[in-house]
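A favour, since you know our structure tokens better than I do. It will help me judge whether the discrete encoding reads sensibly. The space below this message is yours for that.
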Amino acid sequence: MPLGRAFSVAVAGVDGQLVEIEADIGQGLPSVHLVGRPDAVLQESRDRVRAAVTNSGEKWPDGRVILALSPATLPKVGSVYDLALAAAVMDASGAVPAQRLVGTVLLGELALDGRLRRVRGVLPAVVAARNAGRATVVVPEAALAEAGLVKGIRIFGAATLVDVLDWLRGGADLITPEPVPPPPPPAVGDLNEVVGQHEARWALEVAAAGGHHLLLTGPPGIGKTMLAQRLPSLLPPLTERESLEVTAIHSVAGILSDDYPLITVPPFVAPHHSTSVSAMVGGGSGSARPGAVSRAHRGVLLLDECAEISKSVLEALRTPLEEGEVRIARRDGVARYPARFQLILAANPCPCAPARDIDCICAPLARRRYLGKLSGPLMDRIDLAVQMHSQAAGAFSGEEVESSETVRKRVAAARDAARKRWSSVNLTTNAEVPGHVLRQRFRLPREALAPVENALKHGRMSARGADRAIRVAWTICDLRGGEVPIAQDVLQALSFRQRGVA
């Protein structure tokens, strides 16, 4: 009984698992049967694969073809298996030898004429193939640059099914990836374009240096959004490991650039205030896809007009803010996406949002209800809160202000100090440090902790809030070049937690 075998990868979240595809050609009426928990898209591949094979000049078997994808209990989603399905059938019919198929993983969707089309999640799929010990991966030519980011495995690209079958028969080699060109610098604004707002600028610098979350409140037109949009210009470029993490998420989301697939700068994501819970944290039918919080991994998530966002959407941020990842349970299993981002919230103080508080026409209850969507548990996870005020004068004075480059140097120095300090616990920024590490291995002097203990004693702060205040104090200490936070650093950190919401 003819039996063929090929390999592909199933991607769930940013994790991949090797899938073995077996093809059996038996007696009976010509038909194709797929087993192994295929979804609707994969069920349709029966017709795509058969048409691609025949239109490529190959003969499709006349008997009953059974295609089994294992592990059988693992849900199989999408069209990434098309190329491997075709190769398994050709192997079973004796049209291609099996030598090269044994150590090769095949990824790609087939068009009806045999062209190979790009699919989502090529980068995590190639990483999974390498981790499974496979020597070679064949991907569509359009995804070759993305696949080439993974080291330690041979990558080949093909334009058509004919090219792949010719290569399996020992013909000419397929295309190999070229070095990835560096992406152009992102078009972000400079901090010297923001007039005044010295307190908010300082809070932005602290947020950039420590990876802290920030809330900006104030009347419209004073620069809340403009200031938040300049946070990426203060952040250092991503490390190689962080770049691959972010690129893998964007690969699964299907939003990678064809010309510059490697993401080397912190991403900036700013969803509209009408966004849904699924769009924010991820979701969808079948296999869950990454949401805004995961696309902002290692970068910035700006929620402008956050008081207009649905309360359910805001509350859904609580878990990723605390744990740095999202776990989405769906019919086809649980998808896990990293979500370690900096949250920037911007809001007006009330619905009418006048330039001066004395001109407000909102009822007291309406004013309280407007920012009441920012619940206590959510606000407890915000490290810095700043209430911005209108510029009384000096907006056109031509005052010299620091540029992003100047501030970025101080931020880089502070981050280097934090990285060296936390290297023993394998962390890089102050915002990531667990509370027990702050309280035990890196406990502050008693005189520095006195303001925090006093706030806890009088119920003005939770234990989580105290940990976050200490993290901010470490960042302020790093920015001034100190070794250990002093009482003044802690007091300034506490002051940032007691402002922002009128």
In short: Residues 413 and 479 are 8 Å apart (CA to CA). The longest strand covers residues 15-26. The chain has a mean pLDDT of 90. The domain at 3-168 is CATH 3.30.230.10 (Ribosomal Protein S5; domain 2).
